[in-house]
């Protein structure tokens, strides 16, 4: 880094190469020397530990008392059935539901796979996964409780969530199967010491690699947001500067209904606790995309409205202005008793 340099170079580029349905190579660059690892390592940990997925947490089989039992006419013991069930990757079709119980009944002789478990409420992303083999004398009736979650939950913690007639299961929620990254040097303005992060992300199909990375970045933003309370600057002067665009805060402290959004979009923002236009502008693009119940059409509508008033969703405010805006919005909400 040259002696007269006052600001770090900001990474500008991201490239996504789809290697298969569940595998992608994502390159981000350029970073100053040493900064790539600062982001790559925590993002890998977040990808592996905080990605949201679905898993069976409990099982009840008619005529079976415990997981070491057996069922007449079924080739597999119940313990093997449970292991096979855990390898099937479910997905709840209604994104507003965090947990559902699903009832299944099988009497026809043959092999049962993940494909046979798909219905109006549940999808299976690995439909060829084997579950059990039954003969004509078997009546296999069972109920599975499927839950949305992150990381891993042992069966001991699941026990309190289900009835006594259920077999609690260890739940492996994470949909990310593997994440590796490489850091390569690259040339920028005749300087060969800049760096590029190359992620290879593999998922089980419940989520795409790109969406998994978006979730990880969003989680990082949320965890870092606690520092906004500590470092909010007082009495910011937002008069024009060479490097700062002059912004009238009056536009940003207007109620969100001034955007004249559709009822669906407005209700999504209202349920998320967003009252003022500035609250949306302060969010990153990823954070806006992750607002609950804000679908693609609503996101496009909101993006167009913000662009019309001069605040594109993919741009961020200067930190001095953002800090002044946070202070003003906090004051307004305090007066309203929120």
Overview of this structure, please?
The chain is of the alpha+beta class. It has three domains: 1-50 and 175-231, RNA polymerase, RBP11-like subunit (Gyrase A, domain 2, 2-Layer Sandwich), CATH 3.30.1360; 52-172, Beta Complex (RNA Polymerase Alpha Subunit, Chain A, domain 2), CATH 2.170.120.12; 239-338, 5' to 3' exonuclease, C-terminal subdomain (DNA polymerase, domain 1, Orthogonal Bundle), CATH 1.10.150.20. Helices cover 29% and strands 28% of the residues. The protein has ten helices and 14 strands. It has helices at residues 35-50, 78-87, 155-158, 209-224, 228-231, 263-271, 277-281, 285-289, 296-308, 319-335; strands spanning 13-20, 23-31, 52-61, 90-92, 99-106, 110-113, 122-124, 130-134, 140-150, 152-153, 167-168, 171-172, 176-188, 191-203. The strands form five sheets. It has a four-stranded antiparallel β-sheet with strand order 1-2-14-13. A four-stranded antiparallel β-sheet has the order 5-9-3-11. The two termini are 46 Å apart. The model is unreliable at 232-245 (pLDDT under 50).
Question: In total, how many domains does the architecture comprise?
Answer: 3
Task: Give the helix/strand class.
Answer: alpha+beta
- Helical content (DSSP H or I, runs of 4+): 25-40%
- Mean pLDDT, nearest integer? 86
**CATH hierarchy class name of the largest domain:** Mainly Beta
- The number of distinct helices, counting runs of at least 4 residues, comes to 10
- Compressed to H and E, one letter per element, the order equals EEHEHEEEEEEEHEEEEHHHHHHH
> Based on the structure, what is the oligomeric state of the protein chains?
single chain
CATH architecture assignment name of the largest domain: Beta Complex
Could you describe the largest sheet, including whether it forms a barrel? 4 strands, antiparallel
Global Rg? 25 Å
The CATH homologous superfamily name of the largest domain equals: DNA-directed RNA polymerase, insert domain
State the shape: globular
CATH domain topology of the largest domain: RNA Polymerase Alpha Subunit, Chain A, domain 2
Our measurement of the CA-to-CA distance between the termini, rounded to an integer number of angstroms, reads: 46 Å
User: How do the strands line up in the largest sheet?
Assistant: 1-2-14-13
Unreliable segments (pLDDT under 50, ≥5 consecutive)? 232-245
Classify the beta-strand content into a percent band.
25-35%
The count of β-strands is 14
């Amino acid at each position: 880094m040259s002696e007269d340099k006052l600001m770090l170079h900001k990474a500008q580029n991201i490239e996504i190469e789809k290697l298969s349905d569940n595998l992608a190579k994502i390159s981000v660059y350029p970073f100053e020397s040493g900064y790539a690892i600062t982001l790559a390592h925590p993002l890998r940990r977040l990808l592996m530990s905080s990605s949201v997925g679905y898993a069976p947490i409990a099982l009840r089989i008619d005529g079976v008392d415990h997981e070491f039992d057996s069922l007449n006419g079924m080739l597999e013991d119940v313990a093997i059935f449970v292991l096979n069930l855990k390898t099937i990757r479910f997905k709840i079709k209604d994104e507003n539901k965090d947990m559902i119980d699903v009832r299944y009944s099988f009497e026809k002789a043959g092999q049962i796979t993940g494909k046979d478990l798909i219905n109006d409420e549940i999808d299976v992303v690995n439909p060829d996964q084997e579950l059990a083999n039954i003969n004509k004398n078997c009546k296999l009736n069972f109920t599975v409780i499927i839950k949305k979650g992150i990381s891993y939950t042992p069966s001991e913690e699941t026990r309190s969530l289900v009835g006594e007639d259920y077999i609690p299961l260890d739940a492996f929620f994470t949909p990310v199967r593997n994440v590796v990254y490489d850091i390569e040097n690259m040339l920028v303005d005749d300087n060969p010491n800049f760096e590029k992060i190359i992620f290879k992300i593999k998922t089980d199909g419940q989520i795409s690699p790109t969406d998994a990375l978006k979730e990880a970045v969003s989680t990082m933003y949320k965890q870092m947001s606690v520092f906004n309370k500590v470092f909010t600057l007082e009495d910011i002067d937002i008069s024009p500067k060479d490097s700062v665009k002059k912004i009238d805060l009056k536009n940003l402290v207007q109620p969100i209904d001034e955007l004249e959004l559709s009822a669906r979009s407005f209700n999504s923002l209202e349920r998320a606790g967003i009252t003022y236009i500035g609250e949306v502008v302060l969010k990153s693009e990823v954070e806006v995309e992750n607002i609950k119940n804000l679908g693609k059409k609503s996101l496009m509508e909101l993006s167009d409205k913000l662009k019309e008033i001069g605040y594109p969703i993919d741009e961020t405010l200067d930190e001095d202005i953002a800090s002044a805006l946070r202070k003003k919005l906090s004051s307004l909400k305090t007066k309203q008793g929120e």
